[in-house]
Amino acid sequence: MFNIGGGEFLFLAFLGLVLVGPDKLPKVAQDSARMLLKLKKFAQNTTNEIKQNLGPGYEDLQVEDLNPKRFVKKHIIDSMAAIEAESEPDKKARIDPDIL
User: Fold this and answer.
1) Residue 3 belongs to what domain range?
2) pLDDT single digits (tens) 28-52
3) Domain check: are 7 and 46 in the same one?
4) Distance of CA 26 to CAs 7, 22, 30, 40, 62, Å?
5) Are residues 55 and 11 in the same domain?
6) At what angle do helices 25-54 and 6-20 cross, to 10 degrees?
7) How far apart are CA 35 and CA 20, in angstroms?
8) What is the mean pLDDT of the chain?
9) Which residues, including other chains, have CB under 8 Å from residue 12's CB and lie 6 or more apart?
């Protein structure tokens, strides 16, 4: 997810140990984990609320789909594919069995 290797993880652990101190490090780690869980639940609830408010047809909505660039690109590609399918139904890509 974050592309953190073993050496980088050890460096971050050492840095946390130095900055926070060995006595407070477990408490800070617990508080950080709780905060991340709350943020994750908040994001999930917000996404579910958006899906409910948009109504039927948006059950498979992803947060990434709300990015304007991806939204426009997705709709342009879908409309282009639909136009191609309607105009030339006989010219579909075929795989030569000899190649396989």
Assistant:
1) 1-59
2) 889 999 999 999 999 889 888 887 8
3) yes
4) 21, 8, 6, 21, 35
5) yes
6) 110
7) 17
8) 80
9) 4
